[in-house]
Records
---
Amino acid sequence: MLTIVEKVICLQNVDVFSEIPTEQLSYLAAIAEEVTYSADDVIYKFEEPSDALYVVLSGKVRLHRNEEEIAVAEPDDAFGTWALFEDTPRVATATALDETRLLRIDRDDFLDILADHVQITENVLKTLVGRLRGLLERVGVDIAPKAGS
Amino acid sequence: MKRVFGSIIDIRRGEIALTLLMFFYYYLLLVTYYFLKPARDSLFLVKLGAEQLPIVFILIALIVVPITTLYSRASRSLKLNQLINATALILIINLFVLRWLLELTQPWVFYLFYIWVSIFGILSTSQFWLLANAVFDATQAKRTFVLFGLGGIVGAFTGGEVTSLIVRLFGVSTENLLFFCMIFLGACVLLVNSVWAIKRRADVEVAVPSRAKTRQKESYGDTFKMIKRSRHLMLIVGIIAMTMATASFVDFQFKTVSVEAFPTKQELTSFLGRFYGRLSLISFLFQLLFSYRVLRVLGVGGVILFLPFGLLAASVAMLVYPGLLAGIFVRGADGVFKYSIDKTGRELLFLPVPLEVKKRTKIFIDMFVDRWFRGFAGLLLLLFVSVLGFSVRQLSVVVLLILAIWITMALLIRKEYVNAFRKALERREIDPGELRINIAEASTLKALRTALASKNERQIAYALEMLSDIQDSEIVDTIRPLLHHESNEIRLKAARVLQAQESDFVAEMRELLTDRDPNVQRHAMRYVCERSEGDQFDLMKSHLEDPDLRIKATAMSCAAEHRDLGVRGLVDDDVIRQLLASEGEDAESVRLRVAEALGKLNNPKFRGHLLGLMDDPSPVVVEQAIRSAGRTGDREFVPQLLKKLSDKQYRWPARDALAGYGDRIVGTLSDHIVDTSVPVPVRSRLCRVLSTIPTQHSVDVLISTLDQVESVIKYHVIKALNNLRVRSLELKFPREPITDALLEETESYYTILQILHIDQHPDTPAGRLLVKALEEKTDENLERIFRLLGLRYPAKDIYSAYLGIVSTRKDLRANAIEFLDNILRKDLKRYLSPIMDNISDDARIRRGRELFGVTVNDVNESLEYLLKGRDPWLKACAIFTVTKESPPEIRKLVEECRTDPHPVIRETAFLAANR
């Protein structure tokens, strides 16, 4: 079992948590649960309700839609991030390729943490806004009229 | 009368000095103006004659706009106190020069003096209101501005009377009145600076109100187009134009007959002084005693006809018997009505106009319509008097013609007003607060009655909201059917409006006792108990014994808030038990009302019921029980409330309930804040609770916890102190403990900086985590340092400096450093300057070592420092870097951490020890 500090080291690599100070990350680490899957185990299926984010500790996870491979998550990679923010169905199936250890953060627990720790909420929002801004800039969209529409 | 004055004078503690200073400032300004006004008129009339007045009217119209524009620009580049001082100084010098120029007896001097006094009148009052808006917030303004208005009227009266007196009895020459004015203006400067000093002490930024800042962007062309599109606005502008034009004619007539009646300068000055002073007083008394009543009876349509019909009568008098008496009537009618009832009427005409349009139209009218039409009247006067040779009597015919146009427009606008009002009501564009003040006006009521018959629920609710304080027998029939409306909100509001009426509605309210909405039921029952014949005690008792549990619960709610202790005593254990045992679909609503009533009853005998309801299966009942527990102020509930604070569902009501205990609970809360066995989120929430109890005790206990808590909680403690400082200016923040906390933060900053600059941190995930945690800690240190500085220095300034220091922009950082260098005391500067200044980290570390004598030379020393420190997160990160190769003394410290109360430290220590 990983300790809180070890979990913090893993969570630091998750993009959406990148602005959160390490001490605040330790609160998230406390709700992160370690789960293990054998090779070919399905972690979640396409169009299943989203309920958690995963970080790969060891092993590999294939993200695919039917036979079409979208990505392969390796150690320190996170997948299913948007499950923390919306409950739309999964856009891909996640299958363990090897014996795989993952950190799982449940959405309800995450929202509880956000409610308890304003600094975490602030930093998550900062990252999301930065990401949105970058995305819009990349496609050349002027942010102001979008915000008003 | 006592009630009238009671409502006028509502000054709170802490505002008295400022209000009195501002009162006397305005008083003196008006005294000065009413010294100058008769002097201006009499000198001009005696030396140049009334026939020159049209020219001066035109000149004023031409000059005032550029002067006020220039002034407006100056107001944007200067601080308000600087602006007022500079203006006052210029005015005093002007007066001195004018006094000297008057000796020359050249005609242009009297033109200059006339125009100068007119500009003085506009500038000085506008400056006063700018200052008043800057030093008082909106709530204070509502209370104090009425008093200032009163000060102005008393000042005008005093100025006029004293002028008359000293000229008549003591033979002071009209020209020498200017010397008095210089003294008064000098006193005004002293008053303004005292006002400024008080505001600075109160640590409130005094800025030029935004009006001056935003005006520049408005396009008057656009405003004119906007006015042209609205018939209602066009008529308003037309009426105001006619008002201004008539004023110039009337002024000319009055001054002409005055100078004929009082041909000498001294006599004329004395007469005008008395006349102007008394005119202000009569105008004020008319406004105070009659305006509201006239408004109620005649409505806005009638009120706006008051001035033109008054002038009509006086002008007929002037036509029939031209002379001083008719002159006094005509100018008196203008002076008394224009600034009292007609002003109210004109303001009301703007009521259906959306706020933004209203603001822009008013500015347009002040800047252009007012001046242009005075100037235009000057041109007409020039034509009639100088070219056509009209006498004062013949001018009355012209005045009557203008009045005919004016009255026609006033009659047209009555219908237009109701239409505009109806539309605005549909669009919900009227400010209910403003409307409530003016609602008694007849046509407004008519429009609201129409809105009540609408099918639109929002519109009905809105109209009912506005009618909530109004007594009007005619609205009753419209409202009665609304008692059966399907919307809970409308039924409740309709009931409230009816309850405010003098007539009896007991029968209607009885029907509402079984209404499906508990709020409606409660309002109905309260009314029924108050208005029914017979003993209230018996009535309430019968309701409490009612087999219908909804009525029983409502009766309990009403009894709980009854003034009579006997009635409150009717609620007993049996009633509560019966209600709590209720089942079915109303059960939750019944328990909810019981929970609410128990808070109001505040009877220790029922404590058990309330505690039980705090664990009710229904969240709404629990929330109400928590609020009721807070309302009782009973300390027995505190443990339960603290428990609820950790429940995400109830943390907000629990926080409010705890804050409701106020000062009595401060000690208990601080005990929990320092208790490390209480979860961190709960402790931080307790800090927030304390920040809502603005007492010295809260400040003192929060400060006392500063050296007992770990850094994460310390942040919340300091934040709570910051909030308290903003919340109440009267709280004292003792310097010594704050300085101690500042030095502790500073020492921590320097030491962590030393540790960060040790090159031997391992390049492993553990080493990198420690470095990152240390960097974050220096940022947190810096924030806490500035938050603590915000307790000793103006908080807003310190916050701006903080943003400058953490900014990546060099200019902002330089400004912040310069600012801090100027405000920080020498003892603090010594410690803080190296942190802020643009020096290398090595130089910073050296300075830190000199200041605190703490030296960390290598990794092992840094680990020792962190492992012995009080920061749990740094401790955990430090432990995580320890390996079996680490020195024995470090491993021993890690071993000791295996029994640390903090779970993360304990867990990491176990891991490190087992490596």
Note: The radius of gyration of chain B is 37 Å.
---
Amino acid sequence: MLPYPTSIFGYFIVGILGAITFLFLLLLFDKDVAILKNDHVKIHYMGTLYILLGGVLAVVVNLAGNPDFTANQLILAFGTGLGWPGIAAGIGAGRRVGELNQEKKKARGLNLSLEERTDRMVEEARKEYKDRLERHIKNYEILVSRANKQIEEIHSFYTKKLSSIGGG
Amino acid sequence: MREIIVDQIMKQPVYSVDVEDTIADAIKKMNEKGTKKILVMEKGKPVGVLEKWKILESDMGKKVKDVELSNFKVVPLGTVLSALESDLLNYPAIYIFSPANPNKILGIITAFDLVRAY
């Protein structure tokens, strides 16, 4: 048994051990240890902070209920250290779920805009082909009119020639 | 729809004969170049278009200036094709000149080119 205030040290050590156990278990399943990743603090500092805070939390929780460290308190102190990163991981997971939902909404939005864009492109293509068809019809009408005009010119030309030689 | 300008579809080079050339020479040139119409120049300026169908056997000995020439139209480079629809209907050919030198004919378009352009 460790009497108060020596018990603080005991709770702290056991809490740290719990936190280390948690992180070890985490490493078994998540090689990247996503909850330790931070843009501002390096991963080994984050790991150290996690472990130390596990110890601090174990001290705070246990000391209030039982200032003296006894064998009965061992499991509670260890559990506190083990469990607190779990809470943090849970918060992190919750945040990630929120991010995923946002990404899902964004993806839906993109999908919708893709449909809109496809509709617009189809409409533009339809209009372009309609314009082009009308343009072709008009051009062929001009060509036919030009051919008819030339036939008239040829007719007129040769009629004039024939009449000039007295054949018409 | 995109606008097409004459520069994009005009045919080059433009073949020409002089008013003093004989019809036989003009026909020979048209046969060599595979064209049915040829621009007629006088002192370096275009004055008309000689069309093959207007030439009779009896014209062979004549000079180009002695036969009936067709009217033509000239437009500068950069003219929009859609603006020439009625001209392509009325003239056998439209000639394209350089804005820098109106007597320098650079290309030719006909109603067939209008169809080909789109």
Note: Chain B touches chain A at residues 1, 53-54, 56, 68, 85, 88-90, 92, 111-112, 114-115, 117-118 (CB under 8 Å).
